[in-house]
Structures are given as structure tokens and as C-alpha cells.
């Protein structure tokens, strides 16, 4: 009888020890998960801030501003993709009839249809669509184009060859 009590007490102690160890391990896993989520949120916040940075180009007193906004993202077979909306704003006082937008870095597209609304001039160089070249981008107006980047971050763009009439 004493042996049975000792065995029961030992079994109870074992179960309690295992439960305590499991709860500690569970708390550690939860803490690691929370830290990972916080790190991911911080990284996404930095990327969003980078994507929304504005770039300004001044040419002959005319200013063209570029801003980007990440609108979507996903992962496919371990590869990250992001959709960006790019807005060009004519902040000058004269109509701009054309401009070349140059993807300087981090512009990783997989097919031509991954860029829309602008027309390709050459590798990583785009310009206004033909209708806009005819009518122009009036002062204070904007044009928006988009692209799918094989990256979590935005491309870096510059502008050159602004055309005025």
C-alpha cells in the first residue's frame, strides 16, 4: 500500500513537472513569435516609409515629383513580389509633354506586362503614354503608373528628358 502511494506521488510529481516545463516552453515560444511579429512589422514600416519617400526633379524651373505607394505583396515559391503605384506630379507652372522615367536600382520585373500605363523606351527606361505626349501633363496634374517588383522594396527612379512646347 505504501508502495502504491509512493508510485502515485511520483507519477503526480512527474506530471506536474512536465506540465510546468510545457508551460515555460509555451511561454518562450509565444515570446519568440511576438518578437518575430514585431520585427516583421518594423521592417514593413521601414519599407512603407521608403516606398512613400518623394523624389523631386527640377529642370529649367519645372518640377516633377515622384512618389510611390506599395499596394499589394505576396510570396510565391519563396519569392517575394510587391505591387507599387507610382505618381508623377507636375509641380511646375508649364505643361510637360514628355519625360523619361529611369529605374536606377531594385527594379526587378519578370515580364513586360509587369509595368503598366507608361511606354518602354529601352531597358529600365519608360516615358509618358502617347496620349499624354499629345496633350501634356498640365501644371498641378499627375499621372500614375504601376509595376510588380520581384522584391519587398520599391525601385529607385530618376527622371530626365523633360519635354516642353
UniProtKB/TrEMBL annotation:
Ranges of residues in domain Carbohydrate binding: 64-152
Signal peptide: 1-21
Keyword Signal: yes
Pfam short name (any one): CBM49
Keyword terms: Signal
Molecular functions per Gene Ontology: carbohydrate binding
UniProt protein name: Carbohydrate binding domain-containing protein
Amino acid at each position: 500500500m505504501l508502495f502504491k502511494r509512493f508510485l502515485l506521488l511520483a507519477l503526480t510529481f512527474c506530471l506536474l513537472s512536465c506540465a510546468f516545463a510545457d508551460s515555460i516552453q509555451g511561454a518562450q515560444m509565444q515570446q519568440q513569435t511576438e518578437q518575430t511579429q514585431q520585427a516583421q512589422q518594423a521592417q514593413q514600416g521601414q519599407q512603407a516609409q521608403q516606398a512613400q519617400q518623394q523624389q523631386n526633379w527640377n529642370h529649367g524651373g519645372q518640377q516633377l515629383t515622384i512618389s510611390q505607394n506599395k499596394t499589394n505583396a505576396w510570396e510565391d515559391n519563396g519569392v517575394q513580389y510587391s505591387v507599387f503605384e507610382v505618381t508623377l506630379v507636375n509641380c511646375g507652372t508649364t505643361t510637360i509633354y514628355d519625360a523619361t522615367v529611369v529605374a536606377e536600382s531594385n527594379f526587378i520585373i519578370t515580364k513586360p506586362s509587369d509595368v503598366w500605363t507608361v511606354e518602354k523606351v529601352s531597358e529600365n527606361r519608360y516615358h509618358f503614354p502617347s496620349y499624354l505626349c499629345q496633350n501634356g501633363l498640365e501644371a498641378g496634374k499627375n499621372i500614375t503608373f504601376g509595376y510588380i517588383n520581384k522584391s519587398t522594396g520599391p525601385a529607385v527612379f530618376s527622371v530626365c528628358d523633360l519635354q516642353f512646347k
